[in-house]
Automatic annotation (TrEMBL):
Residues 208-272 form the tRNA-specific 2-thiouridylase MnmA-like central domain. InterPro entries: MnmA-like, MnmA-like_C, MnmA-like_central, MnmA-like_central_sf, Rossmann-like_a/b/a_fold. The keyword rRNA processing does not apply. It is found in: Cytoplasm. Residues 147-149 are annotated as: Interaction with tRNA. It comes from the Bacteria. GO terms for biological process: tRNA wobble position uridine thiolation. This is tRNA-specific 2-thiouridylase MnmA. The active site is at residues 101, 198. Residues 281-356 form the tRNA-specific 2-thiouridylase MnmA-like C-terminal domain.
Length: 367
């Protein structure tokens, strides 16, 4: 196959590209320049797609003897990931920019260009596996549960899965990948993993949002609507947050209060007891299936639901109703925020996902 290897400059994508070469594929490496600031530098483990990362990727490509290019996707990244991130916060939701990047950049924009240029598939260093199932290609968890990245790939469609290649999916551990990189002489063998939001390399999400979304003082209220404090900008709060609340009125029971809801239209933050974070139902109209859809999804079907990349899956029942994917977990979920992604599984198989638009609390307001 003709393989386009997406090379971030990290150890995973380096070894993935090397394995694609070893498998006899015709491989070309590409690094995506996602920042408009061409001189962006990496700070420790923070951020990715920096100028240093591009140079690291080039050195690996040179060692493998494959062609290498840097493609400028910064405008698409700004429109589809950064602007979406800001608009979601303005709407009072908590977005996952890594999901949007996978959905709209790595497996949409990049894959579209790869297919136009005659490539058969895009290769990445994600830890997930593809299997042939009775209804076609299926996306499954990797063999290493702790490193499994199938959650952030839950946005992929059947057409995209047909043109992806995950050489690391059956590798038991990240340590083995690093050891292999060292054996191959890759300088990135000991390079730390990136974390945090790549376009906020200093990790100051609150400051980033204040500068771009703006800060305006507003009220913090309890579930009854009584004012219990104030804030400098609702965008700085997320559901489940406890720290940073300026509450002038203590709770009747003296217990800590947590953010339950952010209302951007009125610039109001709603707080309440920890018990009120329990979520009995989630739903979203922006849903997709990873491969073949479940048989008759308008009838309730059993599944597991995962709401964060490193969260444990929870048994649930899902159904498509009135244009929404509605998920009812067997036990209430804790601290779910609109804007998060819910990924559905059947065992190790990824069924699909939805962006959460609304939640239903397991605790009535008058409780």
């Amino acid at each position: 196959m003709r393989i386009l290897a997406a090379m971030s400059g990290g150890v995973d994508s380096a070894v993935a590209a090397a394995r694609a070469v070893d498998a006899g594929h015709d491989v070309v490496g590409v690094h995506l320049a996602l920042s408009r600031a061409g001189g962006t530098l990496r700070t420790g483990s923070r951020g990715c797609c920096t100028i240093e990362d591009a140079m690291d990727a080039r050195r690996v490509a040179d060692r493998l003897g494959i062609p290498f290019y840097v493609w400028d996707f910064s405008e698409r990244f700004r429109d589809d990931v950064i602007d979406d991130f800001l608009s979601e916060y303005r709407a009072g939701r908590t977005p996952n920019p890594c999901m949007r990047c996978n959905e709209r950049i790595k497996f949409a924009a990049l894959l579209e260009r790869a297919l136009e240029l005659g490539f058969d598939a895009v290769c990445t260093g994600h830890y997930a596996t593809l299997r042939e199932g009775p209804s076609g290609l299926e996306l499954h968890r990797s063999s290493e549960e702790a490193k499994d990245q199938s959650y952030v790939l839950g946005v992929l469609t059947a057409e995209q899965l047909a043109h992806t290649y995950f050489p690391l999916g059956t590798t038991p551990s990240k340590a083995l990948v690093r050891a292999e990189a060292e054996e191959r002489g890759f300088a990135v063998a000991a390079k730390p993993d990136s974390y945090d939001i790549c376009f906020i390399p200093d990790g100051d999400t609150r400051g980033y949002l204040a500068e771009r979304v703006g800060a305006e003082r507003g009220a913090i209220v309890d579930r009854s609507g009584a004012v219990v404090g104030d804030h400098d900008g609702a965008h700085a709060f997320t559901v489940g947050q406890r720290r940073g609340l300026r509450l002038g009125v203590p709770a009747d029971d003296g217990k800590p209060r947590f953010v339950l809801e952010v209302r951007p239209v009125t610039n109001t933050v709603v707080v309440g007891p920890k018990e009120a974070l329990a979520t009995a139902e989630i739903a979203g109209s922006r849903y997709t299936w990873a491969g073949a859809a479940p048989d008759a999804p308008e009838r309730a079907f059993a599944c597991d639901v995962q709401i964060r990349a490193h969260a444990d899956p929870v048994p649930a029942v899902a159904v498509v109703r009135d244009g929404e994917l509605v998920v009812t977990p067997e036990a209430p979920l804790d601290g779910v925020a609109p804007g998060q992604t819910a990924v559905l599984y059947a065992g190790t198989r990824v069924l699909g996902q939805c962006t959460i638009d609304r939640t239903v609390s397991a605790v009535p307001v008058d409780a």
